[in-house]
Amino acid sequence: xxxxxxxxxxxxxxxxxxxxxxxxxxxxxxxxxxxxxxxxxxxxxxxxxxxxxxxxxxxxxxxxxxxxxxxxxxxxxxxxxxxxxxxxxxxxxxxxxxxxxxxxxxxxxxxxxxxxxxxxxxxxxxxxxxxxxxxxxxxxxxxxxxxxxxxxxxxxxxxxxxxxxxxxxxxxxxxxxxxxxxxxxxxxxxxxxxxxxxxxxxxxxxxxxxxxxxxxxxxxxxxxxxxxxxxxxxxxxxxxxxxxxxxxxxxxxxxxxxxxxxxxxxxxxxxxxxxxxxxxxxxxxxxxxxxxxxxxxxxxxxxxxxxxxxxxxxxxxxxxxxxxxxxxxxxxxxxxxxxxxxxxxxxxxxxxxxxxxxxxxxxxxxxxxxxxxxxxxxxxxxxxxxxxxxxxxxxxxxxxxxxxxxxxxxxxxxxxxxx
Length: 419
Ligand SMILES: *[C@@H]1O[C@H](CO)[C@@H](O)[C@H](O)[C@H]1NC(C)=O
Ligand SMILES: *[C@@H]1O[C@H](CO)[C@@H](O)[C@H](O)[C@H]1NC(C)=O
Hints:
- The chain has no helices and 21 strands.
- The chain is mostly beta strands.
- The chain has a 7-stranded mixed beta sheet with strand order 3-9-8-5-6-11-13, with no helix packed on it. Strands 15-16-20-19-18-17-21 form a 7-stranded mixed beta sheet, with no helix packed on it.
- Strand 19 (385-397) and strand 20 (402-406) form a beta hairpin.
- Keywords: Signal.
- Residues 1-18 form the signal peptide.
């Protein structure tokens, strides 16, 4: 007779945000490129309270002297800082890439006009599921000939493929335009604004991108570069007034003049990502419960780890948790109970549930006789592929409950989903 050793791993409490910023043109109040934490390159607030520019364009203590002079008509560029994890301010967390726009404002951030849309492939050369990007993060665009001379605000705005859906990134730089032009580009489309709320203008659920897709701009503008990245499709945002509040609602949609398309069909599988996490371990007292088991029942039915975490249940929404933080390469015997349910889900799952992105479901059969063990695959669903990743597991029938031998999934953000 044994007293069951029961231990519950409450899943990780983790907050993961993407991080990115531009290096050129130098954004307002940008810190020097030495490791200094990841504050500056984080997203704007989900409630829109620091849109635009994190409010830096209106702060008295921020130097607004133009950091560059661009000639109207010239080709110029912006450059995203860093190309992968490594810590510090320059750190880029590419979150599978995304879509970004170069835009300009002539009224100190009230309205914004798009100069160039990069739909997909921003940052460049990022694999699905990876936080690493290629080394070349220079993106070319043109300053229109007719652009008004004088000071203006430049904006780089970004929506990532994976990560939280309330993250809209924007860096602003003070720039000077030289030339004979006088146009504030009113006939250009408005910069896309979304994945955050703007009081009285963009409500919850409006102008939201979809995780797992590159944002397709509803109104991309004249200069559009579309980059198809293997296994990542394009998707328009949900409806809404997806532009700055002061913009005129009926700004004319314009037909792209030039579209260039590049393709990256690299299907190699993702790299894993280290997440900042704090984990909590709770021990559950089973003071009055002893398990009396027949001799034939294998030891894993007596000694196992209990997981009661409700966030891995199928009914739980999307979040960025990763089972690599719970399981190791050596399988661990686990019993699911309480709010976690009792079993792994056994049919293809919608991705973006169970507190994760790629949702793990069991493809094999459960053992029917007591003490028997079966093995099978767990598949992880992703948009367009219900078995984008997989790994082997075993299940033992313990006469009234099952225990599962689970290794770490092959990538982040994947989890075993329960029901
Ligand atoms: C980086 O990419 C840009 C845009 O494709 C290209 O014009 C430039 O030559 C590249 N730079 C390097 C160093 O490869
Ligand atoms: C695909 O990506 C992997 C990892 O980044 C790289 O080693 C490989 O050379 C790439 N293959 C192609 C065809 O680009």
